[in-house]
Amino acid sequence: MTDTQTMLDLIARETARILTEKGETIAVPLTADTAFLDGPLPFDSLDLATLIVALEGVTGKDPFRQGFRQFNTAGELAALYAAA
């Protein structure tokens, strides 16, 4: 099992990479309470899908294998991966 804080750090790093590749900058630090969509990040649903694919590639885990699981924040996503 992966630690939630470790996953949150990985999510922050991958989110920064995705936004940098889009030519965007991160105006606020990503925390456990940061919402992906309709939050402070210039992140859309395609970016979120890209993040999920990247996380699976890095961790080898897929917490969505059994179907979609609801999450809104970086902390909720980190917890899904930590428990997978």
Brief write-up:
The protein has 84 residues and is mostly helical. The chain has helices at residues 4-21, 45-59, 74-83.
Q: How would the blueprint of this fold be written?
A:
Layout (H helix, E strand, L loop, with lengths): L3 H18 L23 H15 L14 H10 L1
Helix pairs in contact: 1-2, 1-3
Structural summary, described in words:
By secondary structure, the chain is mainly α. The protein contains 3 helices and no strands. It has helices spanning 4-21, 45-59, 74-83. The chain is globular. It starts with a helix and ends with a helix.
The stretches of 5 or more residues where confidence is low (pLDDT under 50) are none
Question: Helix share of residues?
Answer: 40-55%
Instruction: Give the beta-strand count.
Output: 0
| Shape, per Cα inertia axes | globular
Descriptors for this entry?
84 residues; mainly alpha; 3 helices
